[in-house]
Amino acid sequence: MLRTMFIGYDNRLNHCVARRIAAESDLVGTIWLTAGARWHTSWQGRRDFLLKRLRRRGPLKALDEIAYYAFHHATDKRSRNTLAANRLVDEYWERLGEDANPGSSFGAANVNHADVLAYVDSVRPDVIFAHCLNQFFGKKLRSAAPYGIFMWHVGITPEYRGLYSPFWTMYNRDYNNFGCSLIHLNGSLDAGDVYVQRRIDNVDVRRDNHVLIEHKAILASLEDLGPFLSALETGTARPIERPGAPEGYYSYPGLTDYIVQRVRVRSGT
What's the pTM value of the predicted model, to 2 decimals? Predict the structure, then answer.
């Protein structure tokens, strides 16, 4: 049985992911990224992020992105999507049972910190798994486990690399490409060989938002974890070949993007 590790933000969905890994392998360690790892959890983080977006995107686009962020978080906690996502997590948690318990854990704000590397070295995983982080995994961390790092990316790649993949999939009315990819990370963002892809068709495009779609995609993709680990351990795991697949990279949406998305979905155009 492979020795595994999981890296993710400390939230309920990721605790389900860690417990599923523990049920399928010898989970020897978990790294929970703390609130300080996210730009929107401190005023300094918000200021630094805003300045970076202003330099990169200009004032109009940056304000558009801020407007969507404010709108989404003002309505998110009481929305049907949040309630539905919480129900999915509750149901999955019950399915896992009491035996699927992760081992030791370590809190950090930066995945490339020396203390993180020391912790990884101390537990000696064969393979590391991660879920949708907005941090770049440095070369030292990527080479810390013999099989490297595999990351669950909520989106079908290479079409939907980057951020908010379910949002942009819906924006493009590309409804056959909701899903999740398990990527063997290399030196580029959301890039590397894809070993598992699972598309989902239980999306109500008129009602589901990107958060609920993420929960649906991740939890569905966990059904492929056991077979993938077996193939990895026996040396039969192979990347998926999709020659000619178009590449796309997306970033933060703005409020105007959200309005266009809703109009497209509701009008069917």
Answer: 0.90
Rounded Cα distance, 187 and 122, in Å: 24
158 preceded by cis ω (within 30°)? yes
Residue spans per domain, the chain: 3-267
- Are the C-beta atoms of 177 and 161 separated by less than 8 Å? no
Structure token pair of residue 224: 């492929």
Cβ-contact 154, 165 below 8 angstroms: yes
Please report the DSSP string for 37-86 in residue order.
GSGGGSHHHHHHHHHHHHHHH-HHHHHHHHHHHHHHHHHSTTSHHHHHHH
Tell me the CATH number for domain 3-267.
3.40.50.170
Kindly tell me if the per-residue pLDDT of 38 is higher than 70. no
pLDDT at 37: 46
Rg (CA), the chain: 19
Structure token pair of residue 197: 């892809």
Output the six-digit token pair for 157: 């790649």
End-to-end distance of the chain based on CA atoms, in angstroms? 50
